[in-house]
Every structure is written in structure tokens, then in C-alpha cells.
Amino acid sequence: MRKFIKYAAAIAMCIVSTQCKKSFLDVSSPSNVDDNFVTSTPTETFKTLSWAYSNYRQNCIMGTYRWNDPIGSDAEMYPEQSSSNNLDAILRPDLLPIDYAAAGFNNLYSTLARAAKVANLIAQKQAYLDDVAANKTSDWTQLYGEAMTMRALCYFDLVKHFGDVPYGYENKYVVDYSLSSRFDIYDSLISSLKAAEPRMYKLGDGGINAERFSRTFCDALIGELALFAGGYQTIRTDMQGLYGALQFTTKGAESHGCKYARRVDYLTYYTTAEQYLQAAIDNQGSAHLITVDERTYAHNPFQRHFQYFNDLKVSPESLFQLGNIQGGQQLTTSEYAYAFGRPSDGGATNGAPTKTFGALRIIP
Description:
Elements: H1 2-26, H2 35-38, H3 42-59, H4 84-89, H5 102-123, H6 126-133, H7 139-162, H8 182-196, H9 215-230, E1 233-236, E2 248-255, E3 258-263, H10 266-282, H11 301-310, H12 336-339
Antiparallel strand pairs: 1-3, 2-3
Helix pairs in contact: 3-5, 3-7, 5-7, 7-8, 7-9, 8-9, 9-10
């Protein structure tokens, strides 16, 4: 009898053990989550969108191109004459490797794809649809606007650096693709942001600071997109029909399959730019120009803006600025901190103590 009890107990333990193992195997891994889970609340949704912010900061820098906006002409050169920076600046891209900007190019598409995915998921949520129907600004409408603004900013960077690029293929499997006209891209981006911005929080509202996209920044981005769409630029002449029926005013001679041109209806875009740049001022929220320096030892309101950066604080003049972490486990290694205006400690005797590039990269 005693032996039977032992066997029965052993069998019972095996059954319990087996059931426990089966129960454990039935549990889904925390990393195995679906779209409903990652957009179950605004907080969870922002966790997903935060990847796009992080990847934009860390991996979307344009490599060789990072210096090229403020400097580079027949009158200005970099001191390192044979460097890739200078070859780009003096308009000799033929001397650069074909993939010199591949990392930035690929990561901009990865970033905008994630942002588009988040926006599409939010657009299907009943809570978001109810807020839109009520013309209400909420955390859901803010997050949708944030995602669409991220998507637009990435495409804007792609068009600025590469001109006419593939558009609208994100989150789709394609075996072939074509280039889209930059003017069609500008029109599409402007339209999407116009629809989203009225239901975004102004800077300072809803817990939104300058390290996230706000209505204030979105208005400014629409204005900048419109200025670029209506401005003179180098367009292609080697792809017939790329720009459809658009008509252009040109300057100079055609060369290397390109010409310098501006669309004839540019004033429409300048009117849009004026409207939305004014909207950025009207919706400035907590942003403001620094006109008074509270420091008794300095009395320099202009420098005060950059001192905020060096103090690792968000400047009230910034509509958007990328946060970087100085040290520790989460150390940021992105070159944005060096090449786009945020400070560093110099790193070497021949480096400036605070490598902010004299604010050249910060657009007022």
C-alpha cells in the first residue's frame, strides 16, 4: 500500500509538471505582440513611435552631406581639400563612392515606414475617429499628427538630398518601383500635414515639448515644404514625363541632364508658405524668441539660446531639437550632436570646446 502511494504521488507530480510545462509553452513571448497591443493606449503607441525618433537621430544623418547646407560654393571651401566633405561641397559628386549616403537613404525610408505604420493603425481606432468627428484635439489625434509629421520630414530630407525619389511604397512588398516627381511628393506631403495639424497640440500643450513634433513645428514644416516646392531648384531633363504637365521658368543652360528651374505657378506655394509660417507664430505655444538674458554676467540674449544646448537643456527658441545622451548605457553615438549643432566636449586639442558649428545647422 505504501509503495502504491509513492507511485501515485510520483505520477501526480509528473502530471502537474507536464501541465505546468504545457501552460508555460502556451504563454506568448512578451516580444510577440500584435498591432492591437502596441496601439492599445496612447502611451503604448508612443513607445512604438519613439523608435522612429530614435532611428532618425541615430541613423539618418546623411554622412558626407552633413556639412553641405551652409557652405560650399566657388568662393568657399573646407580646409580638408581632398576630403569627401569638400568633394561634395565643390559639386564633384562624381568623385564620391556611389553608396556614400546609402546608410542615411535607407534609414530615412525605414523611419518613415514605421511612422506611416503607426499613423495607419491610429487612423483605424474608434477613439481616434470619434475625436476627429468631434473636431477634438486629443492624445490620439496628436500621435497621428506626430507620425505623419515624421513621415513628411523624412521624405523632405530625401527630396532635399536626392531630388525625385520613390514615394508611397512603405510597408508594401514590391519587386519593382519608379521615381516620383518631387513636386507630386511635395503636394502630397503638404496635403497630409494640412489635414493633421489642426488636431495637434501646440508646443507646451498636452505634455509636448520641443523633443517631439507639435502643431507649432508642423505648421513651420508645411511652410518650409511650400517654399521648397515653389523655389528654384535643379530638375532632371533625362526622364521624359517625370514632371507631367508642369511648366517651368529656367535660368542658365541645361547641363548633364539637368536645368535650374522654378515652376510657373510658384506664387501659389509662396502664399501657402506665408499662411503656415504665420500659423507657426500664431500657434507658437511655449516657444518664444529670447530677447532678454537673465544672466547678470553675460547680457547676451543671442548666445543664451546656444547656452541652453551646452547646459543640456531644451531652448525655448527651438520648435524641434534632437535629444542626445552624453554618457552611460544609453550613450548616443549619432553624429547629429557634432554636425547639426548640439554640443560636445571637443574630444581633441584641435577641436572647439563646444562643437556647435556656429549655429550654421540650426534653422531659425
